[in-house]
Structure formats: structure tokens, C-alpha cells
Write a structure and sequence with these properties.
The chain is α+β, with helices and mostly antiparallel strands and about 400 residues long. About 45% of the residues lie in helices and about 20% in strands. A hairpin with a 5-residue loop joins β3 (about 125-135) and β4.
């Protein structure tokens, strides 16, 4: 009776140690275990990345793996996208132009290619993507596929576009202000000459009809002069060239004189003026600019609150002089209160009232240049009130 044949041992793989009886050696089993652990750790590492879409493509550009970052950025679950071509992530015009295939071809030829452009999420929204595609080759140099890493840089892209927009807007404002300054300055000379000619003609003319026409023309030139001066002030304020000439000033006397000067304007608007002027309110201010600020508020009240009572109150409050001008008009729309002192802003449509919407802006800048403040509010019984505080 012959002895049974010994069981055949499994063939050993190259480099694998085999114990007698055909079993792998402990060192080989440990190497396999380490490799499996390393592969699992790499998978966990890639999948845990939330800020980057990291996945593999086959040589034709179809998705082979998908991490959680890719799901967050692009919106697809792994079971929805694995096996699909990367062209799904591109805008229609990029697909039509062959951009996905061209990027894969460049990565295959160069080893790596980077691209920034708009991409499409599952829901159809666009995001600005920074993409790196790298060719993956085996030890023999055979192309096995591509790795693809995508970052969502939409916030950065939008911030850059906003910064550029602000720079362009700032440059446009600078050029506009320079133009206003030059144009306004150049207009002053011919307007002054026109006023002299009109005045000369008024003195030489006796015909009542001609005199009436000349008077209307003269009033128009003075309105034009006021407009030019306003534009010049805006240009000075915008370029930081508004200069104050401070000197001792009685604000009590200034307010009284201005009310007297504007008495005809108030009567023409049907406004009764109620004044409470504390005597002896003095300080160091620029007389011309302070008068300009107060005049702007008075003419504003007569214009927007015609037919009502305008109250003017001047008091001293410690180191400040406080001037309030209140009217009984329609008030300021609540949504306009926060922007009433901005350039070219108007509380009421320009279709109802003339002007450029610059008076309150200039008034605020004059007050602020003096270190003071100005505010506006609606009164409980109707109407609006403007309050100026000037350090004495």
C-alpha cells in the first residue's frame, strides 16, 4: 500500500516568503496588513477632506472615485456620478468647444494642468473652480487615469470682482469731480461777463418791456452762478480741498441777519417764521461757510414746507452751539432718513421740486469740517427738523 501523496503547496508570489506547508511567512502577512491599513487610511484621509473635491478619472475621463468634498462642492452623491464623464461639470459652451477633452489631453502630455473657470453644480448653479488635473501612470509609464482636485473659489472671485468694480467706480468719481471742478471754474468767467453786460444794458434801457426781460435774464444768471458755486463746492469736498477760514463770529447775529435777508423768500413761499434766538452765542467758525449751511436749511424748509410755519431756534449747550430748523411740511420718508445727507439724494422726487440734491450734502460736509454734527428727524405732529451742533 502506497503512502498518500503530500498535499501540493500553493505557488509563492514573487518576493513572498513561504513557510513549509505553503503558508505565507509572518513577515509577509504583516506587510500585507500594513499595506491594507495604509490604503484604508489614505481612503479615510481623502474622504474626510471637505474643502476640496478629490477624485479619480479613468483614461477616458469618467469618474472612478468620489470624496465628501466633491459631494459638497458639486452636489452629486457618489452613486449618481461615478461612471459619468467630467464634461457634466462644464458649461455648455465649454463642452461644445471641447474644453474637457483638451484639458485631459494637456494633462496626459504635460503630466499636470491647472485651470480656473466657471463650473456647474448638480442644481445648475455656477461656481468658480480652481482645478488641477494630473496624469496617473504605473511603474511602466502606462496611463492609468487622472487625479482631479477642485477648489470652490467663488467667494474670492466675487470679492475680486467687487474690488475691481469699486476701483473703477472710484476712478470714475475722481474723473467726474475733476471735470466738475474744471468746468465750474471755466464757467465762472463767461457768466460774470454776461452779468456785467446785462447790468450795463439795464442802466441804458428805458423801455419797460426790455427792462423786464433783462431782469428775468439777470435772475437766471444769478441762479446759474449759484449752481456753478454748488458744483465747485462738491468738487472741493470730494477732493479734500475745502478750506475753512475760522474767525470769531456771533452766531446769534448771523442767524438774525439771515432771517432778515430771507424774509421775502419766506413770504413768497407762504411761510411764517418763528424764531427763538439766544443772544451771545459766539464761537470760532468760518462765517461764509456757516452762512451757507444755514441758508441751505432755510431755503430747503421754504421749498418743501411752503405754506407752513418754519421754526428757528438757536441755543448754547455747554461747549456747543445748537441750531434747529423745523417745518410743518410733509416730513421725510423713513427710508430716506439714512441717506438724506448723501450726494445727489432727494427725499422727494425731482419731478416735484427742482435742484440737484446737493444742498444737504454740502451742509453736512461744512458742519463736519467744523467738527460738528447734523441730524434730521420727523416731528410727532408732522414736519421735519434739522439740528446742527457746532463746537464753539
Amino acid at each position: 500500500m502506497t503512502a498518500p501523496a503530500a498535499a501540493s503547496s500553493p505557488p509563492a508570489t514573487p518576493g513572498q516568503e513561504v513557510e513549509p506547508g505553503g503558508l505565507s511567512s509572518p513577515s509577509a502577512r504583516h506587510a500585507d496588513l500594513r499595506a491594507a491599513v495604509a490604503e484604508e487610511q489614505l481612503h479615510l484621509l481623502v474622504d474626510s477632506v471637505k474643502d476640496y473635491a478629490i477624485f479619480m478619472l479613468d483614461p477616458q475621463g469618467r469618474v472612478q472615485t468620489w470624496n465628501s468634498g466633491a459631494e459638497r462642492i458639486k452636489g452629486y452623491r457618489a452613486d449618481e456620478i461615478i461612471g459619468q464623464h467630467i464634461s457634466r461639470f462644464y458649461l455648455p459652451e465649454d463642452r461644445d468647444s471641447g474644453r474637457p477633452a483638451r484639458l485631459l489631453s494637456d494633462a496626459k502630455r504635460l503630466g499636470r494642468v491647472e485651470d480656473e473657470n466657471w463650473r456647474v453644480r448638480k442644481d445648475g448653479t455656477h461656481f468658480w473652480a480652481d482645478v488641477v488635473i494630473s496624469a496617473v501612470r504605473d511603474a511602466q509609464g502606462v496611463l492609468r487615469g487622472f487625479s482631479k482636485v477642485t477648489r470652490d473659489l467663488t467667494d474670492r472671485k466675487l470679492a475680486e470682482e467687487e474690488r475691481l468694480r469699486l476701483v473703477q467706480a472710484g476712478e470714475a468719481i475722481r474723473l467726474r469731480d475733476e471735470f466738475l471742478a474744471v468746468a465750474s471754474h471755466e464757467l465762472k468767467t463767461p457768466i460774470a461777463a454776461l452779468q456785467l453786460h446785462l447790468e450795463f444794458m439795464r442802466r441804458k434801457t428805458l423801455d419797460p418791456k426790455v427792462l423786464s426781460t433783462l431782469e428775468r435774464a439777470t435772475r437766471s444768471t444769478w441762479r446759474l452762478t449759484t449752481l456753478v458755486e454748488t458744483l465747485l463746492d462738491v468738487a472741493r469736498l470730494s477732493t479734500g480741498r475745502l478750506e475753512l477760514k475760522l474767525e470769531p463770529l456771533s452766531l446769534s447775529q448771523t442767524v438774525n441777519e439771515l432771517l432778515e435777508q430771507h424774509q421775502l423768500s419766506a413770504m413768497g413761499a407762504g411761510c411764517a417764521v418763528s424764531a427763538r434766538i439766544e443772544p451771545g452765542v459766539t464761537g470760532a467758525w468760518d462765517p461764509l461757510r456757516v452762512e451757507q449751511a444755514i441758508t441751505n436749511l432755510l431755503t430747503n424748509a421754504f421749498k418743501y414746507a411752503a405754506g407752513t410755519t418754519v421754526g428757528v431756534a438757536l441755543t448754547s449747550d455747554g461747549r456747543d452751539a445748537v441750531l434747529e430748523i423745523a417745518d410743518g411740511g410733509p416730513g421725510i420718508p423713513p427710508e430716506a432718513l439714512s441717506r438724506i445727507f448723501d450726494r445727489f439724494e432727494r427725499a422727494i422726487s425731482s419731478g416735484h421740486y427742482g435742484g440737484l440734491g446737493l444742498g444737504l450734502y454740502i451742509t453736512r460736509e461744512i458742519v463736519v469740517a467744523h467738527g460738528g454734527s447734523i441730524s434730521a428727524r420727523n416731528l410727532p405732529g408732522g414736519g421735519a427738523a434739522f439740528t446742527i451742533r457746532l463746537p464753539r
